[in-house]
Every structure is written in C-alpha cells, then in structure tokens.
Amino acid sequence: MWVLLRSGYPLRILLPLRGPWMGWRGLPRSLAVGPPRRRYRKEALAALEVPVLPVTATEIRQYLRAHGIPFQDGHSCVRAPSPFVGASKLKDETGAATSFSLFIDKTTGRFLCMTSLAEGSWEDFQASVEGRGDGAREGVLLSEAPEAEDSEEVQRIWDRAVPLWELPEPEEAQLARVMFGLTKVTDDTLKRFSVRYLRPAHSLVFPWFSPGGLGLRGLKLLGAEGQGDRVHYMETTIPQPGAFHNLFGLPLISRRDVEVVLTSRELDSLALSQSTGLPTLALPRGTACLPPVLLPYLEQFRRIVLWLGDDLRSWEAAKLFARKLNPKRCSLVRPGDQQPSPLEALNQGLNLSRILRTALPAWHKSIVSFRQLREEVLGELSNVEQAAGVRWSRFPDLNRLLKGHRKGELTVFTGPTGSGKTTFISEYALDLCTQGVNTLWGSFEISNVRLARVMLTQFAVGRLEEQLDKYDEWADRFEDLPLYFMTFHGQQSIRTVIDTMQHAVYVYDICHVVIDNLQFMMGHEQLSTDRIAAQDYIIGAFRKFATDSSCHVTLVIHPRKEDDDKELQTASIFGSAKASQEADNVLILQDRRLVTGPGKRYLQVSKNRFDGDVGVFPLEFNKSSLTFSIPPKSKARLKKIKDDNGLVAKKPSSGKKGAVPQISETHSDQAPNPNKADLSKPSR
Ligand SMILES: Nc1ncnc2c1ncn2[C@@H]1O[C@H](COP(=O)(O)OP(=O)(O)OP(=O)(O)O)[C@@H](O)[C@H]1O
After folding, report:
1. Ligand 1 neighbours (beta carbon < 6 A)
2. Where in the sequence does UniProt note compositional bias of the Polar residues kind (predicted)?
C-alpha cells in the first residue's frame, strides 16, 4: 500500500515568501531549480498505511527471544544487534554503536538500523531474520533519501547562504538579528549550530545534517515579517515537509549525553543551548507532530524536557509527545507569564536554567491530588480562549455555542437521511483541518475519492469542473493539509477501526477522527438480535478512545425513524440514551425543507458539556460550492435554547450589542487558516 507522508503542518506557515523576485517555493528565481516539479502519485489521497497485522511490544520481545536475538528494552524502542550492518559501507566512525544498533519501534514494529540507516517494517525484519530476502531499504534519516533535485537545491542554497557575521553590511546583519529576535544570541552559538543567512530571501537557513555527520540532507528557511508589534514567521523546507524528517542540532549531541531539551523552533534551541549549555534539539514540524521515525534518535536520553512554546497548544502537544517518548522520562515546561518560549526568555533576561528546573514530570499515576492538577487548572483559567479549543473559521455560530473544538471529546452528529450530514461534516472537519487540526476520515459509506471531491470543492469554494485549469493549484494546496483517510469501505469491525485510529494517532498525531457512520460497525458484531446493545458497545469504545488518546471523535449516527414533519431531538438518535450520555456534544442537522425551501437547513447544538450553551442557527446550502457556511452578507439568526423543547432566548448574533456572547472571529493564537484570507483565489 502506498502512503503519502504528511507534515501535519498548517499551510500558511509553509507559504513562501512572496515578491516579484520570488520563484518556486518563495526562493529567489535564480536559486529555484526550474519550473515546479509535479510528482505523479499512485493515488490521489493520503491513505493510511496500517501494518498488515498490528504488533505489540510483547510480541516483538517474544519473537526476538524465540530466534535467540539478544535485545535491550528501551523507552520507545527495543534495541537489538542489526542484521543490516554488514551490508552497508556506512560504518560507524567509532565502531562503538554497531552492536545493538537496530531500533524497533515498540508500537509499530518499524525498525531503523542506526549504523547502515536501513529501515523497514516489522514484516521486513522478520523476513530478513528468517532468510526470506532482505526487505529493508537503505534510507536516510528515517525517510527516503532526498531526491537528487532536492539535494542539488539544498546544496545550492546552502552555498549561497552566508554566516550572519560575514554579511558585508553591518546594518543588514543587525536588522536580521532584530527581526529574528537574535540580538542576544552570539556569533559563537550561530556558528556551533551552523546557522546561515540567505540574503536574497531575507531568511535564516537552518541545516539538517544526517547522523554521523554524513552530509547535509535538508534545510529549513525562516523568513520574518513585521505585523504591527508582532513578528510573523514563515517557514519553507527542502525537501518538502513530510518527505523528510530530521532533528535540528543532531551533530552537537554526544553519545554520552543523557539529557536533552526538545524545542519546537530552531531559534529556541539556540537560546537554550547558549544560556544553559544543555544538549538541545528542535523538532522539524514544531508542535504539529512528532513523527515516530525520530524516536530512535531520542532513545539514548534518560531525561527529556519538552519546552515547546508559550501557549496552551504547545502544552497540549508536549503532553501528547511525552506519551510517545515514554512519560516516565519526560518533564514539561508549562507555558506562563514567567515561562515564555526559550528565545523570549533569553531576550527578557530570564534565567533559563531556573525555568527548566520548574519542569513538571509528565508521568503521574491513575490517582492524582489537586496539588498535581492545580497548575493545569490555572493554565486553563488563564488561557480561557485557548482552552476552549480551535475555533471554526467558517461557522462563527458554532463558536458561539460550542466555543471551539477540543481534544478528547466525543461529538455525536445526526440528521434525517439524505439531509446533507456527510456534506456538512466534511466542511466542518475541513475548516478545522485547514487550521492545523490533524484529521483522519473514516468514510464507510461513500468512497474516499467522492469524499475528497466534495472536500476539494468546499476547499476551493466553487465548482472545479468548470475551471479544470485551476485543479492543480487547488489540489497542491489541498495536498498540504494534514488530512488522512482510512481505506475501509462498507462494514468493518470496531476493533479494526479503533486499531487503525490508534495507529494514526501515534504515527500522524491525529487530533480529530470523523466516523461516517456508526451503522457500518454494527454488522460485524454478531449481535443483530440486539442492535441497541451493539451500538452502545461501539459508542463506549469510541468514548474510551477519545479520552485515552486525547483525540476528538466526531461520530455520525442515523436517527431512528421519525415523522417527516417533526424535528429531530436528542432522543431521536438511534439506540438507547447511551449515545447522548457519552457524547460531549450532540449536533443535529435539522431539515425543515418543507417550510424553508430546498437549500435551507438548521444546525442544532442540543448538548454541550463544555459550557452548556445550546441553540440553533441556520445553514445556507450553496449547491455549486457544496458549502453550508454562512455567506458573509447573511444575518445569522442564532437562537439560544434551553433544551430540545423550549426556547429561552431569541437573539440576533450579529449587529446588535448584547446579543449572544461576542467572540472575536479572528483568532490570532490559533494556527493560521490559509483559506480565510484568500478563499476566492488560489495562490502559490
Ligand atoms: N441543504 C441541502 N439542500 C439540497 N441538497 C443538499 C443539501 N445538503 C446536501 N445536499 C445534497 O444532498 C445529497 C446528499 O447529501 P449527503 O450525502 O451529505 O447526505 P447524508 O445525510 O449524509 O445522507 P445519508 O443519510 O444517506 O448518509 C448530496 O448530493 C448533497 O450535495
């Protein structure tokens, strides 16, 4: 099965620096290698690669024992002698690590030989042990070797970039330092980390070297733009994000280092290293993901401190990453006034070592006291808006009622047959995905191709059939979204679906799973005599998954048969009351087409565990763009209601003061939304 590796990166951050002198990916035309290269792919979608048979750490150990292979149990990996060392010319310089240089991921079974850089699946490893041929590929740092064109481009940019202190104009160097907040970072630090500056692009250049100093494999370019009193950073990576993963700062790590500080930005690593002298590494995609392929490089550390940033999102990411790294060895620096990001701390003259000492252990047992929770509670209270989750950019009324989309919740969504549930939920999820919410779709009823077509139309807000010349532009942008699809179709067992979801959370840091719809998991339960019990069991499984994985699950459920002229209620959801009890949010697509005409629908929030606000607002269906979002001119008429039965208030949501709580629609703390500014025209 083919898999497209994804960055999980909000698009806008990757948008190139723009200007008349800019070429492909925002690089100066003179540096860009020819016209944009179109890679032909076997499939158009990022289908999720699931191991043929999921493997557990116990099975890995048992297998190694059964074949007489010695091993060491590590934090996230099992270490064993590598059968691939002899085959490689890339011998370790010191020769020290050639024993036990094979790292097998305890969760996925994928392996990496740190000496030869061979990598492969658990099945590849077994085949090699059993002499069934060598399925391992020789890779470079956890992914495929960069393509020749990328390597050339990397080298070309690197050669054109210069150390900051070698810039001919001192003013230019000073301006760059100010823009990037580097006034307190010394030349020596920049030199140790080999940071350069690309003059034509006004960008810092951070190199990614392969382990063992075998060469330059990739680059991250960081541009900065003043926006009021804030600086907006733009990143460009070569090779493209998702095609290559590496840790910035790797060459400075010694084999004897047992402690490391992980940051989400290269600039933070510079600040930390300079002021604390501790080993530090920067994650390639910031807080968006921690690809498991990087885990072997972090195995040597007995203690890992995650200091990812100064907002709640960084804190959430730190907690998720700690799970992968093994929480027992992780400590987290909590965002706060006196604990900004490392670079900011350096610039404010704070003591970074002292902040590191305040890091909280990520591990706690099943029972906690309020003492352990009090900091978390404070974090939520002092970041109310972020604690409310990611806000929709296309559905302001949903923000007013639900306040945002939060991790770890279960949303149940229902509506009459054929009312547009899939179409609506597609736009609802797409909206979040364009804001960096890593999303996994389980579409059991309609094919992934059809679903993607709907989504792409919604993404472009228009029929692409009539503008096929724009298809590639939109498809390229769509491809950059952190969006994955399960390849299931038709009936599936709940166990297989949950296993796949767990795998996706681990590998792609999925934060939102959409299941359309639950009825497709009921057939395999052999409980046709008691379909209600089967549904309760399935809902319980999704509830547990959402909580345990800190991942939001949106579950589409068909309603029970209702009179056509009556509106649906929470109790109309098929089955027992379990669905509405377990759900944090219940959304109902109300179809009042007889009264309101063909396009009109209403969305009712009939349960909201977060803060209790429930209500209903109109949706205007646009047949050409397949969107439900409220057109800008339309006056939203949000009604807050008490429950399914009675209205308690009837207030316009816009225009008049004192209506429903006014929440700013622009949301600077959230990840950027590439669609917001330029929905009407594609740009690259
Ligand atoms: N408000 C609307 N007005 C008119 N047509 C709509 C509306 N919403 C969706 N549609 C169209 O109706 C068709 C069915 O929509 P969709 O598949 O989203 O419904 P559904 O509720 O998920 O269906 P099912 O109950 O079969 O799962 C699609 O062709 C869609 O474009």
Report:
1. 415, 417-423, 445, 598-599, 601, 621, 626
2. 663-673
